[in-house]
Design a protein that fits this description.
This protein has about 300 residues and is an alpha+beta fold. The chain contains eleven helices and four strands. The protein has a four-stranded antiparallel beta sheet, with helices on one face. A hairpin with a 4-residue loop joins β2 and β3. The two termini are about 35 Å apart.
């Protein structure tokens, strides 16, 4: 029962954060980027292209949210047997929410939120979009679009998901030149792509980033005890051989949060100023005292041998 309640709480929290992340993305796009008539990547960019083309050649403009949602459903129909049921369910949820938010927000911002500051609007909008995407991905969500295409391609070839998404987004952004015949619009689109990617990676990695210490010191026992007692972190003692001295040495392996690294350094230096230390960033540490794995593993059924 407790396991079920915990899973329910984790799923509810994830969906709340996914909705919040999608809102941040939709607000950044609708209030800052779309009024500047800049084409971004993904199905949002395709929806923007359809909007401006229909506005030019049809008596009415087809809403970005409508095109976006229809394209996501079409892609999911092709991907149903390839990417799995869970991915499809999460993507339908994300695609529905993002289409609703964009459909509601775009009419509220006929002009950019910051007047006559195109580059500033692009940067602010891209930062918000990147933060929103990062929050969604951190909580196992998906907004659809090129995510679906990338997942399909990755299943049938050796091309990575990240590379596929990059190629798709570059093609969509470059096509904006055919509409406006202006190089600066294409450049702004690529600026959005770079900033969104950077911010999303930063959000994803910051939430999981930890630090790994490898410590060499003759006072290893005292250092390990101090780290246990003062920093409240565990130490693993490894056996090693110094190849130059041909002597046996003890090596301390320590994992801690990034904000705790200064404390670890101070403990080591207070005991042995000549200790040899290496420090490296670790993007994910899972287990007691760190992050919990948010993966749903299907139970294994053991067949009885007759």
């Amino acid at each position: 029962m407790e396991f079920t309640k915990r899973n329910l709480w984790m799923s509810t929290r994830d969906y709340v954060f996914i909705i919040f992340g999608i809102f941040v993305y939709a607000f950044g796009f609708s209030a800052f980027i779309f009024p500047e008539k800049v084409i971004v990547g993904g199905v949002t960019g395709l929806g923007t292209i359809v909007y401006f083309l229909s506005e030019r050649y049809l008596p009415f403009a087809i809403p970005v949210a409508l095109t976006q949602y229809i394209l996501n459903l079409i892609l999911l129909a092709f991907a149903w047997h390839t990417v799995g049921k869970q991915f499809v369910i999460r993507t339908i949820f994300g695609a529905t929410v993002i289409s609703l938010f964009i459909g509601l927000l775009i009419p509220l911002f006929p002009q950019p939120l910051i007047a006559q500051q195109t580059f500033m609007n692009i940067i602010i909008g891209a930062i918000m979009c990147g933060v929103g995407v990062g929050i969604v991905f951190t909580h196992n969500g998906s907004t659809g679009g090129t995510d679906i295409v990338a997942a399909i391609v990755n299943k049938h070839s050796n091309v990575s998901i990240g590379r596929t998404m990059l190629y798709c987004d570059m093609c969509i952004i470059s096509s904006s030149f055919l509409i406006w015949k202006q190089v600066d619009t294409v450049v702004y689109g690529f600026v959005v792509l770079v900033v969104v990617t950077y911010m999303a990676d930063m959000i994803i990695n910051t939430t999981r980033q930890a630090v790994q210490f490898i410590i060499f010191s003759p006072h290893w026992e005292e250092i390990a005890t101090a780290i246990n007692n003062e920093a409240k972190r565990g130490c693993t003692v490894l056996d090693g051989t110094g190849w130059y001295s041909k002597q046996q040495v003890k090596i301390l392996l320590v994992m801690c949060r990034k904000i705790e690294s200064v404390t670890i350094f101070r403990i080591i230096k207070s005991i042995d100023e000549n200790a040899f230390i290496t420090q490296g960033n670790v993007n994910g540490v899972y287990g007691k005292g760190f992050d919990a794995l948010k993966l749903k593993v299907e139970p294994k059924h053991h067949s009885k041998e007759s």
